[in-house]
Structure formats: C-alpha cells, structure tokens
Amino acid sequence: MDELDAIKPIFFEECSEQLVELERALAVLESGEADQETVNSAFRAVHSIKGGAGSFGMTELVRFAHVFETALDLLRSNKIEPTQEVLNIFLRATDILSDLTAFEQGGEPVDEQRQQESIQSLEKLLQKPEVDNSEETEDEEDWGLPEGFVPVPVSADMFSDPVSDQTSVDGQDDSTDGFEIFDLDTPPQIKEDEEKEKKTEKKPKIEEKTPVISDGKKTAQGGRPASSSSNAQSIRVDVNRIDRLMDLVGELVIGQAALREVFSSSEKKHPHADASSNDLSNAMSSTEQLTRDLQDAIMAVRAQPMRAVFQRMQRVVREAAHLAGKKVHLEMEGEDTEVDRTLIEKLTDPLTHMLRNAVDHGVEKEQVRLEQGKSATGTIRLSAAHKSGRIVITLSDDGAGINRVRVRDIAVEKGIISADAQLSDSDIDNLIFAPGFSTATTVTDLSGRGVGMDVVKQAIQDLGGRISITSEAGKGSSFSLSLPLTLAVMDGMLVTVAGQLLILPVSCIVETMQISKENIFVSGNNSTVICVRGIFIPIVDVAKSLGMENRQGNSNQPVILIVEDDAGKMTALAVNRIEGQMQVVIKSIEKNYRSVRYVSAATILGSGRVALILDVPEIAASAEGRMLNMWTSENENESSLECAGKV
Amino acid sequence: MPDSASIHVMIVDDQTSIRAILRNSLAQLGIINVSERKNGKDALEHLSQNSVNLIISDFNMPEMNGLELLKAVRANPRTAKTAFIILTGEASKELVQEAVKAGVNNFLAKPYTVGKLKAAMEAVFGTIV
C-alpha cells in the first residue's frame, strides 16, 4: 500500500521519540524519583510502538513490544517493584526494541541470542507475581473484542443533521449526572452488568437547550472540517530546503559587504556627505541587522536539543560497562542545549567512541576502585553548554586518569616520538590523539574497533571543532569539545598582517590592545612574552608564523589581540593593524585549495578579495610549544621575569 | 443508513502515524470529513466548537486518556449521543468494563483491517453506503 509507505517514516520518527521517552522514564525510575506518570509514560511508549508496528505488519517488533509492554504493565499495576534488577531487564529490552525498530528501517539484524535472552528475562518477570497473567495475556493476544460485549448502535437519523438531531426535547427528567444521561437505544451489555444496565433502559431523553454554535455547525457541514489545524503546530520540511536558505543568507552577507564597500569608497571620494548619504548608511545598517536576524532565525529552525544524542549515550555506557564488567553511572547535564542538527548527527559517533573509551580505559574495575577508596560505581559526566558563540561538550570520568608512563612507552614503541623526547604531562596526554595510537593491549569488543582518538579528533576538526584533554592521575580525565554553532557564517575581526588581510573569529578574542615595547620580554629560544596586569602571556608574531615577511615589523607598538582557548589559556597574537569587524561567510579552503597550516578557512570580502581565516587555537598552540621550551630549558630565567612593578 | 459523505469523524490518538493510517482507512471507506486530535483534552476543545458523529479514540494517551474523554463526552448533553469507538491494542478487562459502563459504542482492536473498521462502524451506524 503506497499510502502506508508514506506514513512509515512518520512512524519511525515517532518510534525514536518514544524510545527517548522510554529511556528517560527508566532513568527517572533508576533515580528513585519516579511517580505513577513516569511508569505510565514508559508503558505508553512501548505500547505506541507496538500499536504502530502492528499497523505496518512488523510482526517481530509487535511480538517483542508485546512481551515488554506486558512486563511494564506489572510495574504499572504495582505487581513488581522497580528494583535495579528489574530495571536492568527493562533497559536491555529497550536496547533490543531500539535495534528492532532500526532493523525495520533497514538497519542491521538484531542479535538473536540477545533478543531471546531479553524475552526470557521479561517472561520470567511475568511469572513472578502470584496473580496469574496467562489468561489476560491470551486475551490480549487474540486482539478480539471483550467477551460478552455487544456493540451499541446509534440511531441512524442523527445523520440528517449531526447536531440538531441530538436536540430532542422531552423535558421530563433533567437529572443528568455522569454517564447515566447517555441515551442508548440498546444499553451496553456485559453479562455481569446486565442487571444494573436494565435500570438505564427507561431513561428519559436528554433535554437539550444549549444553542448550537453556528460557526461550529458550519465547519462540521463544510466539505473538509478544520482537521488540518491539529497539525498546524509543526510541519516537516526537507533539510535541503533549509540548507538552501542558509546558503542564500551567506550570499546575502557577501552582497551586503560589497554594498558597504562601494558606499565607503564613494564616501571617501565625496567626503562632504549630505543627508541622503546618511540615510543610505542607516538603511544599510538596518538591512544588515535584518540579515543577521534572518540568519539567527534560520539557525533556530535547524537547531535541535542535544537530548537526542545524549539519551542514546545511556545505552552506550550501559553496554560498554556490561561488557567490561564494570559499574558505571552516566550523569548528563545540558541536554536542552540546542545545536545545529548536522552537528547532532555528526557528534553521535565521536561521542559514542569517547564514552566507550571512558568506560574501557578510564573507569577502573570495582575492586580497584574500592581499594583506592573510591565508590564502587564509576561516574562519567557528559555535559553540553553554550559558551561565547560555541557549544562546549565536556566528558569527564572519575577513573584512573591517563597512565602517562604507559602512554609514553607506547608512543616510543610505535615510533610516534623519539625515546629521548622532552614532553610535558599535557604533551603526553595529547599523544592519545596521535594517529595510530591505541593503548588497548588486546582488541576488546569495546574500544578496539580499529579507530582511535585520532579519528575522533579528526571528526571534531572536520566540524570546525577542537578537542582537548586534561587528566589527573588517580582522579580521572576530562575531554572538552568545542564546536562552532554554525558551519556557515561567523563574526570576524579583520586585521592586517604584513600587508595581508586576515580574519580572526571574534568569539575567541578576549581583548585587544596596543602595547609598548617595555612590556615585552624576550626570553630564551627567542620567545617573547608580554605582561598584562601581572600575568605573562606568550606572544605569537602572526606574520612570522605564517612565513610572511613583515615589512612593517619594526613598528614600536604592535597591536596585540589576546585570545583564549577553551581551557582558558591565553595567547597574545601580534598583528599590524585592526581594520574592523564584519560578518564573514566561511568557505572551506581545504575543498577549494588544500589544507594550509594555521589557516582554518577563507572568506570573500565585500571587495571581492579572498581573506584567510586564522586557525587561532593552532597558532596559539605554537606559542605554547615555545613557552614550554622556555620554561624547561631556561628555568633559571623564571625568577628574573618579575613584571608586577612595571605595569 | 448513513452515507459516507455525511459522517464526520474525529480521530483521537497521540501518534501521528496511527492517525494518518486511520485517516487513510476512513478515506478508503469514502469518509473524508475527518478531524484529528492528539489527546482527550484537545478533542474536547474541538468538540466545544464543532460537531462530529463519531469519535474514534485511543485508550492510552497523555494529558487525557480515551476513557476520560468518553466520560466527558457523555457528560455534556450536547455531545452525549455522539458515537464513540475505542481503538485499542490493550484490552484489559477492567478498562473495557469501565468503558462499557461509560457508554462506549464499540471497540476496534489494533491492528485492524479496513474491513474490521467498516464492521465496527456499521455495528454502530448500520450499513454505510
């Protein structure tokens, strides 16, 4: 049936919503703060999936959902307690249910053994309570009408006018309470209720004096009633159409920049601006603001809460913990943080992998934890938040932390670093992102899937994001992912460096200043630092880093842009001049040319020129490396760098 | 003996897909005057402004379930005589009995065929032409 095929995608979308709801309800039950409605919603989720699956003839899904639903019904009717053991069975069943729906959508077949195990454990629950459910279960199985029920016909004359026919005036008995006023030509019949029902047989007709709302009647009489209004709150739109809108906004931004450029150059030629030029400027400003609003509005259309990804992670952790024989609890925060839907899709795999790693390599076995005075259950925290125009996702565990000795040994063994390399703790931690690095001594079912953290890092970078790690031995590790809210447009700071125009994302700039040479300190290895309010910040000469000859380099007062990374580490970037701020459309340089060091993308300026967008974190990290050398090789200089008195 | 064009149906179910399927099935029976609501509360709101001949409602819905809706429909003199069919995959005896007491006209078990839907409606209305 073609129509049914068209409805299927809606059903599958609902299934995933129901599964999220089911996960949520079970999580609440686990926390012990569940009320009756929580149990109801879990039941309803499975029930809805079953109902829909039945309509599409997905027998396997119906069969499983039925057993699951029957078991949940025991919980609903308080015949079983939501103990951890019971909840674990339900959680497993949720996984199978999710797999079965995925299979119906053309996914991988479900592991038969696991499905059987799950069915058996659910059926075991069904046998537990003293009440015999066998009969009830059979009743439900045949989908038949309840025994003894006779359908209740209504008088056919009501169809001449659906409203006025209900208005029969009798006026003898006005006692109308509850269902008893219901006038039936034949009373409903259920054998045991027959006696009682007889009483209703002689009920008087309803007195109906309420006037009919005329427009209501009109709607009912009209060809098609106001049926579509129920769907008015949401519509489904092809993502490609929204992408097209986003592209167009990008072009609009470029077009506006060009307009602004033409305007400023004509203003320079005719400096004595009259009123009309002022008006023009104002009109341009307001259209620029509208474009920005339009862009935000389109982004809001694409935005979805992180919840969809996060809820899936519960399962990932559950399964990983089960396989590793560890006790792990996943805490989540910021599920309502909204991000672009493309990000949501692309974050699932990296996050899955990172969580598996955290369970596998981070959290220790129960006994080890107890020996170290930790709680038996390890905790992994996953959180998402907006931070200065980016989304920051952190994933931390309270496990063993990075085993630096081992990581170093492996890196040497695999030829990633030389045996005598001088590395800081943070350098060693970052080795886990090196291509080909994997500390798993044996390939387990978990992390040893042929991809390492390098793949994760690459995936995050492809999204314009960054990943960093901090770790403390015995206390755990923490990963921080920072991603742009959109991959299309950003606010840029236009600067000149050695005669070239470059763009820096405004979001990472903390402060700009002109600084005199007295505040610049040259330290060993030719590295320089500035002192800002008593804090030393390493300087990166952007021109030098990019290999450009800085003809204006002798300037006594370079402009300093202080940038901050997600960990709060500051770096000072020295440039020649700040030109202004503007919205820029991000164009991939990798796709159009090739990947260039310290450059993350390019953009087209209003003049039509291409300007490069600096990869600020990467260029800042280059300073970090030099700083490191400075502190390690010239440690004795440290004491001479007293700057408090000079500021 | 109503003809299909004169029947106004309100479908009440929290699942969009189920509503779409039911609408589709009704269309096959020639019934095109169909409105949809996603729970009992929304359904009552619709009824306060519109009249329908038949309500086909799910049992288990958030906000207000099918049984509560049935009771409310019967309690309002203006809608008390509206035919009410419960569409359900969950036929626990207590619920069914309560529904019968509250004055349900018929049941339709999920999953259903168009034939079964027709039979369930005809048991209430007589032959639909």
UniProtKB/TrEMBL annotation, chain B:
Residues 8-125 form the Response regulatory domain. Gene3D superfamilies: 3.40.50.2300. SMART domains: REC. The keyword Coiled coil does not apply. Keywords: Phosphoprotein. PROSITE patterns: RESPONSE_REGULATORY. InterPro entries: CheY-like_superfamily, Sig_transdc_resp-reg_receiver, ST_Response_Regulator. The keyword Oxidoreductase does not apply. It comes from the Bacteria. SUPFAM superfamilies: CheY-like (SSF52172). This is Response regulator. It comes from Acetobacter sicerae. The lineage of its organism: Bacteria, Pseudomonadati, Pseudomonadota, Alphaproteobacteria, Acetobacterales.
